[in-house]
């Protein structure tokens, strides 16, 4: 497998002289093509800052982040916009769908801004919607569909452009248990059948158990890493809980 994401010795500081906070402390790791990696940590551990740096929402203070061999910390202006548009897919907790557009139009937007021909857009949307089980809601507006359907729509929008890396920030945070399971099954299919590379931040052990590898973040650094291997998801969930306990987390917030 090829390395899609290579994070090397990154640090991130906030503040100014007299009041400086080190949010990320010399983190390094790699994500290979086709992996589904989870990032866990308590509130304030640095996991969201890490995702923001990888997504180019925020900039590292030092270190290097490469996506597909390209050092994204050096990108600026149009080159940065092109990278975000063509090589990253985003799935947010709050969906970020446009209420004035239909489900079809929300998904199509990701291709329209890349000037893909309308005929090709329709074909790709129909195929992706069928895989994610949302073919029947393409003509509806976001206010007419459930939370789970909104998140599947957001997932379709994230993967429609065939990005190198899909970034998911607490994707089940706004969903009930049934919708969460449906979305995570969707992620499993995106990863297992379609080969999508996914990096997901979550505080929830059940959600994390769907990943193939978990990085645990504490005080801005990597505390531990576990791999699922050939274990079933229930056994992997137990491993996650064990590490969360070592981290000093509240299990009521972890499950």
Explain what you see:
The chain is an alpha/beta fold. The protein has one domain: Rossmann fold (3-Layer(aba) Sandwich). It is 38% helix and 27% strand. The protein has helices spanning 47-54, 77-87, 103-112, 118-132, 147-159, 177-192, 205-208, 233-247, 251-254; strands at 3-16, 19-32, 36-40, 62-67, 70-71, 88-92, 165-169, 198-201, 213-218, 221-227. Strands 6-7-8-3-9-10 form a 6-stranded mixed β-sheet, sandwiched between helices. Strands 2-1-4-5 form a 4-stranded antiparallel β-sheet, covered by helices on one side. β1 (3-16) and β2 (19-32) form a beta hairpin.
Strand-helix topology:
Layout: E1 3-16, E2 19-32, E3 36-40, H1 47-54, E4 62-67, E5 70-71, H2 77-87, E6 88-92, H3 103-112, H4 118-132, H5 147-159, E7 165-169, H6 177-192, E8 198-201, H7 205-208, E9 213-218, E10 221-227, H8 233-247, H9 251-254
Parallel strand pairs: 3-8, 3-9, 6-7, 7-8
Antiparallel strand pairs: 1-2, 1-4, 4-5, 9-10
Helix pairs in contact: 3-4, 3-5, 4-5, 5-6
